[in-house]
Amino acid sequence: MKRLGKKIAGVLCSALTIMLVMTCYPYVKPFIADLLPKGRYDRATMVISHEMEKAGELTAVRYTDQELMESSTSALFLGEVQNVKAPYTYEIGLGINLADVQLTAGDEGVTVAVPAVEMLYDSFRVTGSPEVKDFFHPLNEARYQEMLDAQAAECRAKYLSDTQCLEDAWQAACESLERLISQWTGETIPLRFTRAAAY
Fold first, then answer.
1. Does residue 182 belong to any structural domain of this protein?
2. Domain limits for position 110
3. Is there a domain that residue 2 lies in?
4. In angstroms, rounded to a whole number, what is the distance separating the alpha carbons of residues 50 and 44?
5. Residue 122 belongs to what H/E stretch?
6. Which residues, other chains included, contact 186 with Cβ-Cβ below 8 Å and sequence gap of 6+?
7. Which element (helix H / strand E) includes 107?
C-alpha cells in the first residue's frame, strides 16, 4: 500500500512540475534566451542598431591637401596668354552610412557586414591671393570659378579612384566600429567583419 501511495505521489509531483513549467515558460523564456549565447548576441544587435541609427554616419578617415593650383591658357601663334596660380586647401572625409551596416547574431558572436566606403563630405578653398598673369586674355570671374571647380574635381577623383586609399578607409571604418560597439554594449562581443553586398 505504501508503495502504491509513493507511486501516485510521484506521478502527481511530476504532473504538477510539468504544469508549473508549462505555465511559467512564456514568462521565463526571455530570461533563459538571454543566458544563451545567441540570445545575448541578439540583444546586443538591438542595442547596436539603435546606436547606429542615432549616429547616422561614421567618418573613418580624413585627408587634407595643401597645394598650389596652376592653370594656363594658350592661343595659336601667341603662346601662353593666361596663367593663374592660387594656393588651396582640399579636405575629404571617407566613411560609411551606418544605416547600410547589416548585423547578424549567431551562436559564436555577431557578423557585421560593412558597406564600401564613400565620400561623406569634401571642401575646397583658396587660402591666399591668386597670382594672375594675363596677356590678351583677361581673367573673368566665370573662368576663375571653372578653374577652381576643375581643381576640386581633380582632388576628389584622386581619392575616390585610389583603390588602396578606399581599402585603408574601409579597414579604418571596421576598427572604429569595433571600438564603438564595445562602448555601446559595455562588453566585448566576438565580432566578424565582412563586406556588405553591393546593391
1. yes
2. 36-195
3. no
4. 10
5. strand 118-126
6. none
7. none
pLDDT single digits (tens) 115-159: 999 999 999 999 988 887 766 667 778 888 888 999 999 999 999
Question: What's the number of domains the chain is made of?
Answer: 1
Angle, helices 37-55 vs 2-35, to 10°: value is 30
Q: How far apart are CA 56 and CA 51, in angstroms?
A: 9
Distance separating alpha carbons of residues 60 and 174, to the nearest angstrom: 8
The one-letter amino acid code at 103 reads: L
Query: Are the C-beta atoms of 139 and 85 separated by less than 8 Å?
Result: no
> What is the model's pLDDT at position 11?
58
Type of residue at 39: G
- Name the residue with cell 552610412: 97
Side-chain half-sphere CA neighbours of 97 within 13 A: 6
| Cα 177 to Cα 111: distance, rounded to the nearest angstrom | 12
Question: Do 123 and 90 contact (CB within 8 A), yes or no?
Answer: yes
Across 11-48, b (16+ Cβ under 10 Å) vs e yields eeeeeeeeeeeeeeeeeeeeeeeeeeeebbbbebbeeb
DSSP 197: P
